[in-house]
Protein 1
Amino acid sequence: MQPYNHRYGMLISKNQIKQVRSLGMKKYREESRLFIAEGRKCTGDLLPHLHCKMLIVQEGESIPATWDTTGTEILEANETAIKQMSQLCHPQGIIGVFEQPQHSLPDPQDDLLLALDGVQDPGNLGTIIRTADWFGIRDIICSKDTAEVYNPKTVQATMGALARVSVHYTDLPAFLQNYRHPIYGTLLDGKDINRTDLSAQGIIVMGNEGNGISEAVRKLITHPILIPSYPAEYPTSESLNVSIATGIVLAKFRE
């Protein structure tokens, strides 16, 4: 006997619940080349841009009429099943299973780029992607030890910005060695960003939460910059959160 009436054609199976839940682990995301997004906002923003293989809707929830779900398997699940699959403390009733897109590295001479050197926290990475989207950054170049973009915490923190921002993982020092425009990096001995001429083309490097920019990348910085505290003589926190610092730097470049 079915536990409840369903509107979307099929109830999710135990095997499908297990599959979706496994995508909370990096190993299975890499093997399947899939990732999950949750909630109306995040899922809805990704749907027009990335292929959604499976859309799971909790009983009592509805799919917005504006969503194009062509080619997507739509399943219904009860609250217990949603909680089993969700990676959130408070599940939002809609889970999308998406294919990971394949991106080519951008032309290193185009526009303004953002680079992340060893950013470890998935929430920070997601917030940086969301911030980059706001300021019109379309490509983020990440060192291989930067947090994984498809970690559920990262995906949720982007609030759908993954639909518009491409994230690339590569040998960051090698990428920067071939870069011909200014390479900006936030360093404690950098020049006050308020007194620095900023280029419309270039790459901005943001470093690890605890250790900053690595030595290998630091050697390649052509324009070290600093976000000064205020007032200069007043004792403050040791440093800014990397996602906050990224927002400040990007705002300065877009002025």
Protein 2
Amino acid sequence: MKMKNIFLPLMAAALSLTAQAATINVKTGIEVLREQGFKCLEGKRVGLITNPTGVDNTLKSTIDILHEAANVNLVALFGPEHGVRGDVHAGDHVTDIRDASTGLPVRSLYGKTRKATPEMLKDIDVLVYDIQDIGCRSFTYISTMGLAMEAAAENDKEFIVLDRPNPLGGLRIEGNITEDDCTSFISQFKIPYLYGLTCGELATLLNEEGMLKAKCRLHVVKMEGWNREMSYTDTGLQWIPSSPHIPHPHSAYFYPMSGILGELMYMNIGVGYTIPFQMFAAPWIKAAEFADALNALQLDGVEFRPMYAKPFYSIAKGELVQGVQVHILDYQKVSITRIQFLVMQEIARLYPDHAVLAHADKERFRSFDLACGSKQVRERFMKRNRWEDVEEFWNKDVESFRELSEKYYLYK
């Protein structure tokens, strides 16, 4: 009886947690499409651009949903970075294969071509896009979406976006707009580094503001229940890793906090350890000293904790490194993207023999510039290793882009 008394509260707590986890507040585009009976796809040959994040609220793949729907003729799949089933490592080329589950042909959009060719599209009438991105310009899925929209326009195909939440919310905008000489697959469009739009809203903006080579016939299947102030946790939706190093919804907060610095491959940012994008560490850092310096900046909404680690792979593999783990205490107050520049500032002050831009491999500068969307960020910072020399430039486009993007809000 005593054992029973011990376990009853534990069981009740577990059931309570399960009930909480089952409360889903948002219907994503695929849910709404199904409720509409897939009407916009009837009588059309459908090509689907997706990956493992394309699921319904029971975690069933959009691939299988459309393949099984009696009135949908799904004829081809298109694979972005990591592939339609998530079986390709970051940066590796996706190849043309057949999907093992459905037998459908899979056309690669992350290999020899990043943009669907006329040959790829000849047997379809409509391209459907269903991928969960993370609200950051340098994450390649939105580049895949935009180039696919161009291909659809050039080949007279319809384009449908099944909308999903921006895990950063719909209000956060940070970073300068991409300049012409830094346009690339990780900065494909003239938008800020954090752009504060859902993929459906972004698609509408790209289409209507002439940011594509041709305007497509676009239709967005809107979500139900989402609003701009929602965190991903607020949605009640399960998180599917959008890439191997974005395993949790909060990973989307940390990727833009350290990812630009990570392009230099100079210090470990948690990739190769258990907290990807959440730490800054190197063998020559003194953890407590470094944490004290960063905390002395008194940044809103964030705390830096001294830590010690031995990365399993990537930078400093197998070496003992010291540094900080970044803890977000108040997401609404923290300015995400500037943290990596302040880290670089404090490294130059505390450890001048290891100043990042003075000692990083210069061949990596181009990748850094492409992520920033401008060479000016690096050039301004290198003069004194001070964030204040970059801050005005980094923020110069925020309000003008906010004013522009508000015209394309699909949600309040």
Protein 3
Amino acid sequence: MIEKNDIICAVTDAIGSNGEGIIRHEGITFFVPACLPGEKVRFKVLKIKGNIGYGKVEEILTPAEERVREKCPVALRCGGCCLQHLDYNIQLVHKSNVVRDALRKIGGLHVTVPVAVKSDLPFGYRNKLQIPVGVDKDGNNVIGFYAEHSHRIVPITSCAIHPEWAERLIAIVKRYMTECAVKGYDEENKKGAIRHIVAREIDGKYIITLVSAKRELPNLPYLIGLISESFSQFTLYINFNDQDTNVIFGKEFQLVHGMGIFEGEEQGIRYMAGPVTFLQVNENVRTKLYKDALKTVCEDGDEVVVDAYSGGGLLTAMIAKKAKRVYGIELEEEASKCADSLKEMNGLGNMTNICGYVEEKLPAVLAKEKNEKLRLILDPPRAGIHRSVLKALLESKIPQLTIISCNPATLARDLGILSGRLIEENGELLKNPAYAEKDSETLQGYYEIEKIQPYDMFPHTKWIETLVVLKRK
């Protein structure tokens, strides 16, 4: 009988959706990070619950040909780059398989998914840094990323998927905290000050935010001076968050230096962004994704397009240059205001920005434009599309939908509903009995997948962005 702390030698069967190796041994399926298919490994059993187990690699006895040396010394410990040990081209295939398997298992959809579009910059691609700050067991300040499935911070000084500027900023904040006696936040004791460093680079300009459990931080002019020595154009916010929550930002932002909002440019569109404005973190892949997304909603210029979950309006503006009219719906007030500024800066009179919940604002727009050539593009958060929005889409009879998703699981659920494979009964999603066979034709009134394409927006991590085009049957 296998028990906790046992040492097992076995061969890895596959890679899971979270980047972990899957090992089947004596009737138990083990999930063991840092293992690749075909590798013989020696691992320690950490936990067993029923026929599911979790382990930690002790030694790779027979490495796979696809294994590469990690660029970051803590790649497999920090919880971020769970695939950095896998050849990048194989990562692209694996992520496509993750999308395919999610669609089949969750949504009941059997779809051929092409290989993910690669990032031309596999390392140093992130334009946004979001890193926890805390204290270690000895009470010393620590800056780093959380270990997988925990809030234990793995200390770092640099990160391989962030540009060099992130290393400089981490060092500056660490120096400021040391020299000015500022403590990181202790989640257990609810003491200390700084909880996160959040920063975004926009065309060589930086929006920096320190998230603090205290409204006031000491010697901010000194911190501003340190940043000024390394960053020529930046703005600095203090965000107050004293809540016991996993949400990074609190509601209060204090601008302590700079303009607060910076201007950028993408594909000829000038845009504005602040500390909470959503922008894709990988500009290279964002360009590829948006160009392809535009082709799906703008064909002859007669379209009226609704861009749901529109963020700061960058994609909305690109659509406005090609479509008859476009509506952007966004909940975050700052992002919606940035979208209004973008509209004025680019002279886009056919662009309307609406601030509010998509599920509340979308029905009125659809009713107003029901006699037009309607197209809808949705780029929801990881939680996916709100159930009421999915219902409104099915009732709207819009001939075509385009979805951009960063979460294969919620994408599969949403596509299952839109395709009719999943139906809701008493608040529970069930398989639709009308689809007795996996290859049944799409039922009238539902949508079928016309195109699907993953994009590797997040190399070396478990995450993948996917573009889907749906046609109404």
Protein 4
Amino acid sequence: MKKDLLLGYDIGTSSVKASLVDVESGEIVATTFYPEQEAPIIAKQLGWAEQEPTMWWENLVAATKNLSAAGHPMEQIKAIGISYQMHGLVCVDKDLNALRPSIIWCDGRAVPYGNAAFEAIGSKRCLSHLLNSPGNFTASKLAWVKENEPDLFEKIYKIMLPGDYIAMRLSGGEVNTTISGLSEGMFWDFKEQKVSSDVMSYFGFNNELIPEIVPTFAIQSEVCASVAQELGIPAGTPIAYRGGDQPNNALSLNVMSPGEIAATGGTSGGVYGVLGEVNYDPKSRVNTFAHVNYSQAKTRLGVLLCINGTGILNAWIKRNIAPEGIGYSDMNKLAEEVPIGCNGLSIIPFGNGAERVLENKEVGCSMHGINFNVHNKAHFLRAAQEGIVFSFKQGIDIMREMGMTITNIHAAYANMFLSPLFCRTLASVTGATIDLYETDGGVGAAKGAGIGAGIYKDHNEAFSTLKHISIIAPDEANKDAYLNAYNTWLTRLNKVVG
């Protein structure tokens, strides 16, 4: 019996993941990714980070062909959804060719441009209309291009986010974007319900640079004939959903209503909570965007704490400090041998660009309290995980200051959440119970496509089969030890930040 399938693409920094989902059962038929080794990031200067958009496409093609090679019936795909790394800037010319590498999310060069805009437009107006400072987001990155690469800027036909670029390639040239996407780039005015005239006017951008706006859940375009032949997907297959990686992760965990929380721990980490009313952090340390189910009639905003140095720190520890040849599960076991607080060793994990939670300061990664007579490799393994958790805790406290009640965190059983130590530490230091599920960004995008194409009537039907893995409760017996370790870490961080 033939099964109808949904295909979800997750355009990450490290790789492109492709996931097939059975429409009827909701089961994950297959998941693959490409490349197996982490995709390169171009860093021509300290604090810069770029990737070639064509590389994302080539990785998508390779991941799709992995599915075909494994014998999965690509001709039975009924809709495609896209999740993507947020805040990246893609500039294309009139022939829809990328003019330069994409300036991606962890690139810090645009901070001065965003800060200047925040001051010129006015903090009150920015926060009440954009819900954030322009900061280091896509609009500010485009301003950097305008000033530093003026000849290239003049050739720009349209600007896009990474997911918009992939949808364009799949459709053979249809260029569009979403309100959710524009809001993450600081192009959307929530009060005026249109592209921000403040941002466009201040930076000197023409509104024609902005693609056509389409709904997040809808048939946005269709797979063209040439791509269908290349990928083995039927021509005319609808591209029916796209969302940034953090909103999409929340979707994949069916986090759609006010008060619900989702967390991730991939290359970067995030805690994402849904608000039902317009609000913002006065210091703009956490970000507020339109959630995937945002509409003028129903306010659904996502409050995002993003930590750039999460899984990438753990990967660095593996390459440079962990005993040679061991995997992440063995690293977790070694880290468990060390007591809470690592005998005074702390790691500040902010070595992957400017951090929003630190008001866009770039403080780097640093290690504190090293005792040559006490600390060994295992201490560093645990201190890295604790440092990442403590950065989550710092941001969660800011979200609580905004009035969010956080007693439960939903997360996919993947990446950092595969570590029992990481989960236990996060639950214990925040006091929140963690629920782990079997899902990922590709699966969320696939089911999002099912909603957008009308195959599912709503998100509750789409995620009714979401598989629950386990619950991690706070370790009440060691609560004081976790909080003491956090307070030591926070004191050291404050000294670094100054």
